[in-house]
Design brief:
The chain has helices at about 5-10, 55-75, 95-105, 120-130, 145-165, 180-195, 205-215, 245-250, 265-275, 280-285, 290-300, 305-325, 330-370, and strands at about 15-20, 25-35, 40, 45-50, 80-85, 110, 175-180, 195-200, 220, 230-235, 250-255, 280. It is of the alpha/beta class. Helix 5 (about 145-165) packs across helix 11 (about 290-300), helix 6 runs parallel beside helix 7 (about 205-215) and helix 12 (about 305-325) packs across helix 13 (about 330-370). The longest helix is centred in the last third of the chain and has 41 residues, at about 330-370. The structure holds nicotinamide-adenine-dinucleotide. Nicotinamide-adenine-dinucleotide binds near residues 116, 181, 201, 203 and 237.
Length: about 375
């Protein structure tokens, strides 16, 4: 894989990319700010053992762009950003997160960070000790963000079931949950509380045992989950899982979950559509944490879970209905919607900036006139 950094940044209209290193702690990270036209760039930090720096950078850019899509579709006064920390055995984790957070502080509110894969409440607390711009997982913060994400994924699944069958009818549903991490565990609990049958996989046997013990989830071997006949397949682990091989195995009517970028490509979304599988795009349903974090930090309120569910359900319903009316894959419909709304945001921001510049110019002309200098001087 080879990535042309500047061409990619220009083509995807990124505002800024920062590389962060800290020799003392072993920190190597990227921070990408995709869009700040409507407010700060917001997005968590992923810590992962990437195969290469290029893989880390390309993940960071994809994820930041997806955060913009989520902000735009959820109508939030914020845009997309993301960071990745390249994990390795020598990384002095607590100190590295501290060094990273100090760099986040230097953005002075243009970038807000929080949890993602590899960054849970402990790591977020380490960051919050060094910056005002990390979601504090303690009582002073916005509350459990992964719970909000799971609520959105749950709402998206419900909307898809209602769309296909007219009712959620949870007690008669089989849902396969891939990944029992912060989000997958919560989601499995929500589904079991509604009496759905839940089969789930995770690479971590302890997480499997916990979900089995707490919720009566049926555990399956990772890699076997795609071929299980089910109503809903819910990806909640890593991205890119809908590639050629897994698509051939899939035996579900709906795909909806929190994992970022689960499609290997948009064409894989087209193939789901052609096969009659209702795919609810990740960035339509996995914005629960974002909604909560943004409204907490920018508007000072803790949005209740049912309000988050209602907001995400409305967005998912609109995309699914438009997709149905146009017989166009939901991922394509959602991408187009994002592009249109983002262009409108950026136009509004640049005319506001033009207006502000004109006002500043007018004010300085006035001031210059007051100070007796000609505005043309
Ligand atoms: P997490 O790290 O807590 O959990 C991920 C889980 O997936 C881990 O338990 C891991 O062992 C498991 N896993 C990895 N590869 C797997 C495989 N091949 N098969 C089965 N299990 C596998 O992460 P999370 O916070 O729960 O996030 C899950 C997904 O949702 C990620 O894609 C993340 O980007 C996305 N997401 C999370 C949030 C949030 O609030 N945490 C918000 C939006 C999107």
């Amino acid at each position: 894989m080879s990535i042309q950094i500047l061409s990619t940044l220009a083509r995807e209209q990124f505002e800024e990319l920062v590389a962060v290193t800290d020799e003392a702690t072993g920190l190597r990270a990227f921070v990408a700010l995709h869009d700040t036209s409507a407010g700060p760039a917001v997005g968590g930090v992923r810590r992962y053992e990437y195969a290469s720096e290029e893989a880390a950078l390309s993940d960071c850019l994809r994820l930041a762009r997806a955060m913009t899509a989520k902000c735009v579709l959820a109508d939030l006064p914020a845009g997309g950003g993301k960071a990745v920390i390249l994990d390795e055995p020598e990384l002095d984790r607590e100190a590295a997160y501290g060094a990273f957070a100090r760099r986040v502080e230097q953005f002075d509110g243009r970038y807000y960070t929080g949890p993602d894969v590899g960054t849970g409440p402990m790591e977020t607390a380490w960051m919050a000790a060094h910056t005002r711009f990390a979601a504090d997982p303690g009582p002073a913060g916005p509350g459990l963000l992964s719970q909000a994400t799971a609520a959105g994924a749950f709402a998206g699944i419900g909307v898809a079931l209602e769309h296909l069958d007219g009712a959620t009818d949870w007690g008669r549903r089989t849902v396969v949950v891939q990944g029992l991490g912060q989000v997958g565990h919560e989601l499995a609990g929500r589904l079991r509380a509604q009496d759905a049958r839940v089969l789930a996989s995770d690479l971590d046997p302890e997480r499997c045992a916990r979900a089995e013990r707490e919720f009566g989830v049926e555990i399956v071997e990772p890699g076997t989950e795609f071929q299980i006949p089910c109503d809903v397949f819910s990806p909640n682990a890593m991205g890119g899982v809908f590639h050629d091989l897994n698509l051939r195995k899939l035996d579900a009517r709906i795909v909806a979950g929190a994992a970022n970028n689960p499609l290997a490509s948009l064409e894989h979304g087209d193939r789901l559509h052609e096969a009659g599988v209702l795919y609810v795009p990740d960035f339509v349903v996995n914005s629960g944490a974002l909604v909560r974090g943004v409204l907490f930090h920018l508007e000072g309120r803790r949005e209740p879970l049912d309000a988050i569910e209602a907001r995400i359900a409305a967005g998912a319903r609109a995309i699914i209905e438009r997709s149905d009316a146009e017989d166009r894959p939901p991922a394509r419909v959602a991408e187009r919607e994002v592009a249109e709304r983002l262009a409108a945001r950026r136009t509004a921001a640049s005319s506001a900036a033009g207006g502000a510049a004109a006002t500043t110019a007018a004010n300085s002309s006035e001031r210059d006139a007051v100070f007796g200098r000609s505005p043309e001087a």
